[in-house]
Amino acid sequence: MGEQHLSDVHLERYVNGIIYDAAELKWVESHLYECPDCADRMWSMQESEDGGSAETETPDLYRRDDPLQ
Question: Which residues form the domain of 36?
Fold first, then answer.
């Protein structure tokens, strides 16, 4: 995989659940699964959106400490 990362716009749209195109959603989720840097950025945005809450509706699949990683 190259050095490209998801843009803040892609991450914000993903966190806010406003990616409606199935192909784009699959592409973003695939990238998040493979790129710990983008996954960390996504979790930071998610926590900001939640007001720092640890609870989210998104599975922990993208967290570095997940056993599947």
Answer: 8-62
